[in-house]
Amino acid sequence: MFDKLFEVQQKAGEVKQRLDALTVTGTAEGGKISVTATGNKIIQSVNIDPEFFKEADKEELEELLVIAINKAMEQADNVSQSEMAAVTKDMFGGMGGMFGK
After folding, report:
1. How many separate domains does the chain show?
2. H or E element: which one contains 36?
3. Does residue 57 fall inside a structural domain?
4. Which residues, including other chains, have CB under 8 Å from residue 49's CB and lie 6 or more apart?
């Protein structure tokens, strides 16, 4: 049983490392604003097209930044869920008989 717990902890660490290495990008206004984050939801960069920045007002810029950040976070969630599903399937896939399947 402790071996299984250790394996779970080890797999969780591996997933965290993979998610740290993956990047996702959320964009708004046709790519004029982009936010890049890791699969672990750490924002790495924000890029705003200089021409758009000159013309945009504060409220518009703030709204579009929120949109781009939310899109990046949604993609990070999707990547994280996929990684966790793969690990769970690998670990428990062979134990289907244990749960009546």
Report:
1. 1
2. strand 33-38
3. yes
4. 31, 32, 33
Let me know: does 80 contact 22? Beta carbons within 8 Å.
no
* H-helix or E-strand spanning residue 18: helix 2-21
CATH of the domain at 30: 3.30.1310.10
Rg (CA), the chain: 19
CA distances from 42 to 15, 33, 71, 79, 80 (A): 15, 17, 13, 13, 12
Residue 60, classed as helix, strand or coil, is helix
Q: What is the pTM of this model?
A: 0.79
d(CA 44, CA 34): 11
**Any domain includes 31:** yes
Overall residue count recorded for the chain in this entry: 101
pLDDT 10s digits, 3-54: 777 777 888 888 889 999 999 999 999 999 999 999 999 999 999 999 999 9
Rounded average pLDDT over 71-79 = 96
